[in-house]
UniProtKB/TrEMBL annotation:
Keyword Membrane: yes
InterPro entries tied to this protein: DUF3792_TM
Membrane spanning stretches: 47-65, 72-90, 102-121
UniProt keyword list: Membrane, Transmembrane, Transmembrane helix
PROSITE patterns: PROKAR_LIPOPROTEIN
Name this protein carries in UniProt: TIGR04086 family membrane protein
UniProt key word Membrane: yes
Entries under Pfam families matching the protein: DUF3792
């Protein structure tokens, strides 16, 4: 028998769901803000990117806190789930991926990694 830990697929998907719920709540708030301030549809792309980045950051943070380490890996895994979702929805609703879609995907991945790193640092700080 090996002492290796099992891959926490259920935890990974649960935290992804929590991050997605946070992104959805942020998108709802962004929609309300657009209506109240009379913003044009040009602001929708940047507000949506910010909301998905927030969800990716939060899920990377939570996953690294739950796993108590390897924040870079868990943050990248959560960010990759969000990038995969963006890619899937982008291919379903758009004909091709332009430069801005790749920039958004990179930002989402980066925010997941940063969330994982902050979660790892927070877990190390608690141990002291």
């Amino acid at each position: 028998m090996s002492d290796a830990k099992k891959f926490p697929a259920v935890g990974l998907l649960t935290v992804f769901g929590l991050g997605s719920a946070a992104a959805a709540g942020c998108l709802t708030g962004s929609g309300w803000l657009m209506v109240q301030q009379g913003l044009t549809q040009d602001a929708a792309a940047s507000l949506a990117t910010a909301a998905v980045c927030l969800g990716s950051f939060l899920s990377g943070l939570l996953m690294s806190l739950l796993q108590k380490g390897k924040g870079l890996v868990w943050g990248a895994a959560e960010g990759a789930l969000f990038v995969g979702l963006l890619f899937l929805l982008g291919t379903l609703y758009q004909s091709e991926w332009g430069t801005m879609q790749f920039v958004r995907a990179g930002l989402v991945l980066l925010m997941g990694v940063l969330g994982g790193i902050f979660g790892m640092l927070r877990a190390e700080h608690r141990r002291r």
